[in-house]
Structure formats: C-alpha cells, structure tokens
Write a structure and sequence with these properties.
rod-shaped; 3 helices; mainly alpha; 79% helix; 0% strand
Length: 126
C-alpha cells in the first residue's frame, strides 16, 4: 500500500497555464486601450467641431446681446455645460488610457520571465 498517492501537474502544463493567464490579461488591456482611444478620437473630433460652432454662435449672439432672448441664453448655457462635460470625459479617457498603459508596463516587467520561459521537456506526470 502506497502512502503517498497524490499527483501534481507537470511544470510544462503549469507554465502553459500561467502564460495563458498572462496572455488573457494582456489581451484585455489591449482591447480596453483600443476602445478608449477610439472613443477619445471620436470625442475629440466632435468636441473640436462643437467648440468652433459654439464660438461662432456666441460671437453672433454677443453682437446682438441686447436683443438676445431668454431662450438663446438657455441654449448657450446648455451648450457650455455639454462642452464642459465632454472636456471632462476627454480628460478622464486620457487618464484611463495612461493607467492602462501603466498596467501593461507592469505586466511586461513582472511576468517577462514566465512569458519567455520554455516548457521543460519530459513526461507529463498528470
């Protein structure tokens, strides 16, 4: 009767599992960066266009300030509010992308040995 009848996975199998986990994390980070950059790009274009339109509308409204109606004032205030919100979102996206790149850097530096490792050759005990 054997006292110790337990088995462990092979080092090669463990290494492959670890490499797969790291790859999954890297893929999620890359996907998140690409998605955030895509959103930022579209937002930046729309924001630039909106700022130009708002400036032109504000200048036109400013010339006839005395004749400006309450409705125009509300529209200008609403546009300003949306522009501020869009600018805040743009700032947040830039920060988010930077943090994701930090995570990517940590992943690259902390797990370099695992990713570069070659599985040992030998029989798989499991």
């Amino acid at each position: 009767m054997a006292l110790f009848r337990f088995r462990f996975r092979s080092a090669a199998r463990d290494l492959k599992s670890d490499q797969d986990r790291i790859s999954s994390i890297r893929s999620a980070i890359h996907t998140s960066i690409a998605s955030a950059e895509f959103e930022l790009s579209g937002l930046s274009k729309r924001l630039n266009e909106a700022v130009a339109e708002a400036a032109a509308a504000y200048d036109a409204a400013d010339e006839s300030h005395s004749a400006r109606e309450a409705q125009q004032e509300k529209q200008i205030a609403s546009a300003e509010s949306r522009l501020v919100a869009a600018q805040a979102r743009s700032t947040m996206l830039r920060h988010f992308i930077a943090k994701l790149r930090d995570l990517e850097h940590v992943l690259n530096s902390e797990f370099r040995e695992i990713e570069a490792a070659v599985p040992p050759v030998g029989p798989d005990p499991a």
